[in-house]
What we know:
By secondary structure, this protein is an all-alpha fold. 71% of the residues lie in helices and 0% in strands. The chain has helices at 9-28, 37-49, 55-80, 98-117, 120-136, 140-145, 148-166. Helix 2 (37-49) packs antiparallel against helix 4 and helix 2 runs parallel beside helix 5 (120-136).
Amino acid sequence: xxxxxxxxxxxxxxxxxxxxxxxxxxxxxxxxxxxxxxxxxxxxxxxxxxxxxxxxxxxxxxxxxxxxxxxxxxxxxxxxxxxxxxxxxxxxxxxxxxxxxxxxxxxxxxxxxxxxxxxxxxxxxxxxxxxxxxxxxxxxxxxxxxxxxxxxxxxxxxxxxxxxxxxxxx
Length: 170
């Protein structure tokens, strides 16, 4: 992901619309936590994609922010007649270590497998969650709330490596 990618007010509005479209029906239907799993899977992958310095996930995170900005600015202008505004304060979740990269790779494989097994409705929820995660985590507020995420992922990867090296497997 490029470090210059920021979220505009229109991009934020679009991201919040997608989140609302996924969370409101869940809330009205009795808020069963299991029904949030597809959206949560996508959100988690989208959020961690913002800490990828490059590769497919990093590029997709940058593209989703750019597409969200363009689409959100058009929607905001079309509905309210106002412009999307400038960029919001940019947040940064941090960076991945090579061990954390392994965890993100395994997470990506898990979400892709869930995507392939999902029905049409759940695929939309996964995609919506990925969009919301990859856009909201570019804001200073969301990045601050999820600041623990890179450390947790990197720590999990380091622990896994230590366990495998200590066991004589590698």
